[in-house]
Amino acid sequence: MSAGRESLEESFDRPGFLSESRPEIEEIHSISHRPSQSLFFCRYQQSKGGLGFLEPTPLADRIMVSVEYRALGPTDVFRDGRHVIQPATGPGALALYDLRQSWVGDLRDPFDNLSMFLPVSTFQELAAERNQRFLGLRWDVRDKPYDEVMQSLGRAILPALARPHEISRLYLDHLFLAVREHLAGTYGEFVGNPRRDQRGLTSRQIRNALEYIETHVADDISLADIAGAAGVSVSSLTRGFRTALEVAPHRWVLNRRIALAQRLMSAGKTPLSEIAVLCGFADQSHLARVFLRHVGASPSLWRRSVQW
Questions:
Q1: Residue 37: its pLDDT value, please?
Q2: pTM attached to this predicted model
């Protein structure tokens, strides 16, 4: 990368490529993690070999987490200008690229991967909660380990790229935290004696969280929104939900949306398209898929059964 890298870092706020070569398919989805910070999930696909040199845009203080879904042969990689050979890998291989360094790869084989761009600050915040300091993620470009957990999490994220209008911020928040916890626990380097807060949520905190959910059940709320209403951190909220309610927050919200849809369907003849919107679903087909998966019957069939 050129000497102007520091100035470039100020110019890019979305994933992309500096090189002329680009994959055939680039699907990018983002969620607002904070007012000034977004999380990115990207699917990159190339069906033909010989793409050539590919250089990601520099995103200041981000880690690019890539899960491969196709086998790759050995690849020439340049990290801060230094040549390294990345060994051949199979589906499920994991790669971690610290974008505070420059990376260029000579991609000769077809590829299919999911890449997530996580702020370094999120690992620093996790370390602070544990009374530790985050040093980095242990990973060498010459070692591309198979990571079954990340492959599964990646497949849970893929529908967000296929039907982004149906995926809630809450669900992506949940997946992001799962990715962060796994990477930190498996590859993270921390210093300091860990401190884990095992306390659950108080009855008042739970009540405030549940009341906020009921009031905003049709809105595209985030974990930070719910945590703010309860007066706790996001980590404390997710841990407290599992302890007190034995369910993740995103699952609780989904259950409440389905329950609301059932009440509206049984109470009258409101069209399913309107019920979908009133309950926070993208459209009637989204409601139908979720309802069938969780209730075991289509909305129209369920409505006839209760109104008979």
A1: 62
A2: 0.80
